[in-house]
Amino acid sequence: MRLNRYILTTLVKILLVILLALILFVLGTMIGFGGIGGGMPLKVFYPGLWTHILNFMK
Q1: Is residue 35 within 8 Å of residue 41, measured between CB atoms?
Q2: pLDDT (tens digit, 9 = 90+) per residue, 6-37?
Q3: Cα(4)–Cα(44) distance, rounded to whole angstroms?
Q4: 31 Cβ contact list (under 8 Å, min separation 6)
Q5: Which of 7, 26, 44, 54 could connect to 33 by a Cys-Cys bridge, CB 3.0–4.6 Å?
Q6: How far apart, in whole angstroms, are the C-alpha atoms of residue 54 and residue 7?
């Protein structure tokens, strides 16, 4: 029974770290695009912007 609890708590910790990393990525792109870049922060979620960025990097 202790092994199951250990595995469950470990999985929860891993999922929390992944969720926190995702939240920080989204906030970082919004701050970078909106605050530093001078654009609208929510525009960072437009697919056209990401295709432009990926085409620029090619």
Answers
A1: yes
A2: 999 999 999 999 999 999 999 999 999 888 88
A3: 41
A4: 41
A5: 44
A6: 39
Query: What is the total residue count of the chain?
Result: 58
Contact in structure between 44 and 30 (CB atoms under 8 Å): yes
Token pair, residue 46, equals 């437009």
**Which DSSP string corresponds to 9-52?**
HHHHHHHHHHHHHHHHHHHHHHIIIIIIS-S-GGGGG-HHHHHH
- Please tell me whether the overall predicted TM-score, pTM, comes out greater than 0.85 for this model: no
Instruction: Please give the single-letter amino acid code of residue 32.
Output: G
Beta carbons of 44 and 52 less than 8 angstroms apart: no
